[in-house]
Amino acid sequence: MSEARPPARDAGPDAPAHASSIVTRPPIPRLPVGRLAFLLLAGIALLAGLDASLVRLGALAPVASTSLGTVHGLLMIYGFLGTAICLERAVALQSDGRRAWAYAAPLLTGAGGISAVVISVNAGVREALANLPIPRFLAAHLTGFAPERMMPGFLITLGMATLCAIYCYVWARRQATHAVLIQLMGALIGLGGILLWWRGLETPRAVPWWLAFLIVTIVGERVELARLAFASGSTERRITAESAALMVGLTVALYSPAIGYPLIGLSLGALMVDTAWHDVARGTVRMKGLPRLAAVCMLSGYAWALVPALMWIVAPPAFDGYGYDAGVHAITIGFVVSMLLAHAPVIIPAVARREVPYHVAMWVPFAFLQVSLALRLLAGAREAAYPWRLGGTLGVVGVLLFVATTLTVTIRRARAVSRERRLIDEADSPSSGPASSGGTEV
Fold this sequence. Notes:
- The protein is mainly α.
- It has helices at residues 18-24, 33-57, 66-69, 72-93, 104-121, 123-130, 133-141, 150-173, 178-199, 203-225, 227-230, 235-255, 257-278, 281-284, 290-314, 321-352, 363-381, 385-428.
């Protein structure tokens, strides 16, 4: 696309009207290829994680690897969502100057997810890494240490540590707000969760830390994005305290699950109710188009998060079976993916420099995910294996529908903008105007 030409210095009031439009019209931003490479890492982790989900459900999967099924949660939470969160934070940090070091966070978490996939599906690589000196030494001296966790655990730990450094930089140099503090707590929880897994803790025992990483981070972003709604009175301080209480419950649960999980449930329930009550979504749900879609997604997400909160308060801790599955996926699909649906039109333009316009088709993946999750939880409560498997499989389809719908509306909008700009440029070009009487351009 040719650059806009400035008007001649002696252009007066009789200058062509199109000259000013050429000067003021902003160019179409280039696609940030580097950022898209990070998104590619997250996309690979997403596809592998969805495949692993099908394996765990006992459904037909493109890659039927039981080893891949064991890293389903790691791929979805750190490889996919963790990389997306790190990338969004790294991009936001560039607003006051180039901070290239911040991009190490999505690079490391994305590489950690890819390494987990390779190690899971390739037995030769897994055995070779397990026989390296450091993993072999740690396995011999640390009870429960799994050598195959060494590479993804190391990379993701460095990535989460870099994410913590990003928030510390923002706190120290740009804005020392409760929103940043809450997100820093979320990153610290995520760092603790991957360290526990790397050390050899069973995945179900580490999963509450992984879930809390996403919950607290998203709550912090809601406080940041809807600052005016949360700024009144002591709301921000209270939400910060509730997030800290969740951290305390996670720590206690490591030593005494019977005490820690009710604390997690109480703090999570208070956090969800408090955040939902003060969120602008309660008002924007009455609007039309994208504001209503985003509000419905957010409010449904808050509601789904109350399911495991109540379970952890009234029921004994579950580390397997249908109860464990219900608590995990009520948060990951019900809360996290619903919030992702709501924030995609805000996050994607900031990262990829392309607008995500509203389209009525966006309601389809939202409805699909809600129905599939309800079927999964209800079937699990009745211990009905086939409907439970069907609900989980439909959830995978719903996530793919969300990705496909978002990509489609984004690409269509980008092409329409490019086509409109090309037509305007052709109309503004001198050759399209009437020829002057002297045969020369004025």
